[in-house]
Amino acid sequence: MKVYLSVLKLRLSMGMQYRTAALAGVATQFFWGFIMIMVFEAFYEHASSTPPISLKELIQYIWLQQAFLVFVMMWFRDNELFDLITSGNISYELCRPNGLYGFWYAKLLAQRLSSAILRCFPILIIAYFLPDPYNLELPHSNTAFLLFVSALLLGLLLLVSISMFLYISVFVTLSPMGSLLVFGVLSEFFAGLIIPVPLMPDWLQQIANVLPFRWTADFPFRVYSGHIPEHEAAIGILVQLSYLIVLIWLGRKALNGVLKKVVVQGG
Amino acid sequence: MSVYFKYLLIHFKSQMQYRTSFWLLSLGQFFIPFSVFAGLYFLFERFGQIKGWGFFEVALCFAVIHMAFSISECFARGFDSFSDLIIKGDFDRVLVRPRSTFVQVLGSKFEFTRAGRLLQSVMVLIWALSSLPIEWTITKIATLVLMMTSGVFIFTGIYMLAATMCFWTVQGLEVANIFTDGGREMAQYPLNIYHKWVARFFTYVIPFGTVNYLPLQYILGKTQGSDLMYMVTPALGSLFILPCFFVWQFGVRHYRSTGS
Amino acid sequence: MIHLEGISKSYKIAKRQTGLRQAAKALFYREYTTIAALKDISFSINQGEIVGYIGPNGAGKSTTIKIMSGILVPDTGKCTIMGCTPWKERTSYVKNIGVVFGQRSQLWWDVPVMDSFELLKDIYKVPQQEYQTTIKLLIETLELQEIVNSPVRQLSLGQRMRCEIAASLIHSPQILFLDEPTIGLDAVSKIAVRKFIKTINKEKGVTVILTTHDMNDIEALAERVILIGKGNVLYDGHLEELRKRFGTRKTITADYSQNTSPIKMPAGAEILSYTQERLSISIDTNHTKTSDAITQLSQQVELTDVTIETQPIEDIIVKLYKEYQI
């Protein structure tokens, strides 16, 4: 555990070195958020039937998405790991005393955590002080807030466990580009980052519900806005947990599998 | 100009050394905007229209801005990735060659994989055009071509401004993304769906409005008043690159007096 | 041909702040320190000379090269090269010069070297016929036949440097600036590069200005050196002159048949090593003539062999740096 903490600490202080970059990132995300909100506002203006998610809830959704972008974006990647796998220098990593799965998992988690810590608060705070109806509101109850925090963190753990498969797949394909593309496009769409899941046609929603992606972004954001009621949220957290356990278990198995092959090939 | 094509050729040869990665990246460039377009399609499926604009009209907007974007990213990549040139110190090399800095920086990098994105947006363009009841005339076709050109000029101008910033600092360059990626994302929809101040900013300051929103009204026969005004807007928008050019020259002069 | 007069240049450097609070402040306000890189530099170089431009790191070598090649504009001073002011008419001036930055490449990494040459031909607008003759000559003298058709990324450092030099000569410039052309090269490549520089200087009359840290380059190539330190010209003249002035120590090594009796050393001699068969001393020729020292030794022991070594130029330069405290 201590190793993981020190990795996180190192990342944080490295991230602090790039303050200007972080500032620029925050500005960009704000602009992005505004564009999305205005587009939805325009769509909602002449909507013939009541949309399945209210504009206010949607705005909460969008600001949270911007604030926690690094929690939910599959595109955010570690090129070091890719290089390690494709160059065959993986043998060095195998000498480490810690299990490879745990170590990589912690590394990826730390990267996302440290960037998010630097970026989320400015966005959340400014979004809170925006004029109505564009502002981010406080969650409507303490329970909802607690549920949101757990859902968000579990969502992050879940996303990292999904992204582990991305790295594992590179052992087989040996080209990060293809894997990144498939994982990136699929996860972005089905996590509801392009359009929120409730706005998708029914048949797509059904697909999204089966896949793990929406539990990383769509679910926590809607818990916050109260679009998903508290008792449903509690059940959702159980679903997240089971997904997490299954994916980590599968991930470890898959990693051990590909590593065995590497050892056999003497790579 | 001929030397620009020579640069193009040598970069193409280099790119062909890495065919697999070229195809994969092009495929990626095809699918990334594809998912965005899918999102747009589903929104129209649910809402039917956006402030009076139909799906195919918006699709046309989308196609034009994405085409302009992919062409500029391919051919003006040298300015887009200018910070590399500065960090490596290769800009000194540019200055000891008897050609304009503009053509040399343009020629320093190309991103051919944007062909994938271009293909995707051409497909959207064809779909949108064949589904819209437009009475085509020569001037309308000319306007459509001008729209793309002005888009390319505007994106290139923004890249040049960001590149000029590198002469002072290479940190925080991501801000330029607001105007390139952000501009592209925003101009996927007609400008009048946004708040007035956004529409104004992107008409008079960074004239993305002249790439699709304004001339599109002429093509779609939605104009009020003189057609000519709407027709020439892309040409006016293209002028955006002129001040960028002067700013660039100023930046080069600053670099040569400070050497940093 | 090259004439510099009173060139000076200073840089403003932002002070780096440590600590979060200082860094936040630096976002809005920065403090600058001014560093004078060049102070009143003047020299002239005639056509056909090879000049070694030397000095420790940070002395202002690259700044001078950058000014002479038109990249940088100096604060004050006049610089006329072939009738042009380099930083004024940049595009017409740079046709006359070739520049090799030893640590950076001007070749396109993934394509055969020949393709890079062809593109440079177009960049410099060299007529096809002229290009044909130049390139043939370059390939022959630099022995590039085997490598011009391979991509640059497959070449060794030495091969690449030969191609770099060829690349900067495609437009037949009259002045060649070489910024550390032998850095990182192995001994064989170094010799090849030096030989070639000498050849083009002799046969085409190309004026060469060369910065380097390798004194062997200077010794092999340059008759004239300009030593710069802390932004000033400290020495400008012949290498031999430099040696005469500062390299007055010589090393005498004497072999003799076994000798057990003590030897009386020449005046002012410094003993480097001393055995029953061999003696190595260092003397200052200002005080003791070499011939006197040898005579004195031969009277005491039965000499079988004597070698006299002048002080390596390397040592002289180190001594100079020390003397000027740079």
Automatic annotation (TrEMBL), chain A:
Query: Coiled-coil ranges per the record?
Result: none
What superkingdom does the record give?
A: Bacteria
Transmembrane feature ranges: 21-43, 58-76, 113-131, 143-168, 180-199, 233-251
**Keywords annotated in UniProt:** Membrane, Transmembrane, Transmembrane helix
Q: What is this protein called?
A: ABC transporter permease
Protein's organism: Neobacillus kokaensis
TrEMBL record, chain B:
Q: Does the keyword Ligase apply?
A: no
Entry keyword Transmembrane: yes
Record field: transmembrane: 21-44, 50-69, 118-138, 144-170, 197-216, 228-248
Q: What is this protein called?
A: Membrane protein
InterPro entries assigned = ABC-2_transporter-like
What keywords is this UniProt entry annotated with? Answer: Membrane, Transmembrane, Transmembrane helix
UniProtKB/TrEMBL annotation, chain C:
The answer on whether this UniProt entry bears the keyword Cell membrane reads no
Where on the tree of life does the source sit, at the highest rank?
Bacteria
Q: Which SUPFAM superfamilies match?
A: P-loop containing nucleoside triphosphate hydrolases (SSF52540)
Q: Does the keyword Lyase apply?
A: no
Report the residue ranges that make up the ABC transporter domain in this protein. Answer: 2-255
SMART domains named among the record's database cross-references:
AAA
Q: Pfam families from the xrefs?
A: ABC_tran
Keywords linked to the UniProt accession: ATP-binding, Nucleotide-binding, Transport
- PANTHER family registered for this protein in UniProt: ABC TRANSPORTER ATP-BINDING PROTEIN (PTHR42711), ABC-TRANSPORT PROTEIN, ATP-BINDING COMPONENT (PTHR42711:SF1)
Provide the protein name: ABC transporter domain-containing protein
Q: Recite the lineage of the species.
A: Bacteria, Bacillati, Bacillota, Bacilli, Bacillales
